[in-house]
Each structure stands twice: as C-alpha cells, then as structure tokens.
Amino acid sequence: MVDAPVSGECNHAAARQVVGHGGGRTETFERLKPYCCRYFGPKVTHVGANGVALSMKIAVNLQLSRVQMMAFSEAILLAEKSGSCARSRGRCDGAQRDSFSHDPVPRPLRPQTARRGAGST
What we know:
By secondary structure, this protein is mainly α. It has two domains: about 5-55, no CATH class; about 70-115, no CATH class. The chain has helices at about 10-15, 25-40, 50-80, 85-90, 110-115, and strands at about 5, 20-25, 45-50. It has a three-stranded mixed β-sheet. Strand 2 (about 20-25), helix 2 (about 25-40) and strand 3 form a beta-alpha-beta unit. It is elongated and about 60 Å long. The termini are far apart.
C-alpha cells in the first residue's frame, strides 16, 4: 500500500499534469509508480514511509492558506492606508469577509464566540 496525494488544479488533473508524492515502502512505490504516472503525470516522487506524503501535502496546504490570508490582509491594510477605500465606498468591505465576524479582514475567533459555537449570537 502507498499513499499518493497530488497537488494541482482541476485542469492539471484533466491533463494528467499533477505532481504526486508517494508514501510507503520503496519497493512497493517503485512497483506502483508506472500506474501513478499514468494517471497523475510524470512527476511522482517517493517521500518516505506510509503517511509521510499525506502529512507533507497537509503541511504545504496549511502554509499556502496562511500565506494567502496574510497577503489578503496586507492588501486590505494597503488600501485602507492609501485612502482608496475611503474614496470609493467609505470603508473597505471587500467581497471576501470573515463569515464569523463580518469583518473585512479575517481574524481569529474571539474565545467567547468559539465557545458558543461558530456563528451564534
């Protein structure tokens, strides 16, 4: 058995151009690699024991989402400090909002909100 998560978007998957990472015994991975390459694409790499590939994918996804949130927050801050929000709508209330606080800049939930349950008032 190997775990073989992939990275890429839907169009990459349709074109069989996703990047695959395999976790499991080296012998098993090498035996299954041709099948992975047939469905994923030519970029399939063995990264360690069972579970390592999935752990790596989760770690990368968490980092990417953190970077995206930081970039979004910085963009809102830049717009607010430059005055462009005040000139256009009176405040920055971009299309993306934190669904729990209705704040245009995503922030961690306040402890009391988390205890009552997401979205409760």
